[in-house]
Specification:
200 residues, alpha+beta, Leucine Aminopeptidase, subunit E, domain 1, 2 domains, three-stranded mixed β-sheet, Macro_dom-like, Macro domain-containing protein, Macro_dom
């Protein structure tokens, strides 16, 4: 909505019912009466400065430790006794509290870093990568073309997040699976995970 020569930006709730316009050439102040319920609706619908409405913060997501556990007992009656007296993967609430299982748009996460799986030329086109590049803006592609250029299989490269809510993007190149080189593929994939986890 416009009053006089300026857009109304109702940041002060104390002005409910009145909006000041100070941009006239005569520098005179004019008060235009606006119904207070309309002004309050504008304030309530307004986004915080610089924050998109779909940004997802980890503090608002449910952690694994907060999800009710479901125990599925294995039936060993056909194969004899269990191989382990105790579970080799015991329940650890401290570790589970660090893990969040979430499905959504990775480009909307407000975190320190997100991971982008790409190819060695760092220009792979897939729904996730395309969304990351679209939201990050042209500066991301410019940084890759000028400063990084490529990433070898099993390696990682780190860029700024630019327009993303995330501060950084960790790019990594996974192996192309081939049954003839199964061990090599598995080892390279393990290296990808390890390098991503070691980035500081």
């Amino acid at each position: 909505m416009r009053t006089g020569h300026r857009d109304i930006s109702p940041f002060a709730p104390s002005l409910a019912g009145k909006v000041a316009c100070s941009s006239c050439a005569s520098r005179r102040r004019h008060l235009n009466i606006i119904p207070s319920e309309y002004l309050m609706r504008i304030i309530m619908n307004q986004e915080p400065l610089g924050v998109a409405s779909d940004v997802v913060h980890p503090n608002n997501l449910t952690r694994w430790s907060e999800i009710a556990s479901a125990h599925y007992l294995t039936d060993y009656s056909a194969s004899g006794a269990p191989k382990h007296n105790n579970s080799p993967f015991p329940y650890d609430p401290e570790i589970n509290h660090k893990i969040i299982l979430w499905s959504g748009d990775i480009s909307a996460l407000q975190v320190d870093a997100i991971v982008n799986s790409t190819n060695e030329s760092m220009n792979e086109s897939n729904p996730v990568s395309d969304r990351i590049f679209q939201r990050a803006g042209s500066e991301l592609k410019e940084e890759i073309n000028l400063d990084i250029r490529e990433c070898r299989t099993g390696d990682v490269r780190v860029t700024q997040g630019h327009a993303l809510p995330a501060r950084y993007i960790i790019h990594t190149v996974g192996p192309k699976y081939n049954i003839k080189y199964q061990s090599a593929s598995e080892n390279t994939l393990h290296i990808c995970y390890r390098f991503v986890d070691e980035v500081e």
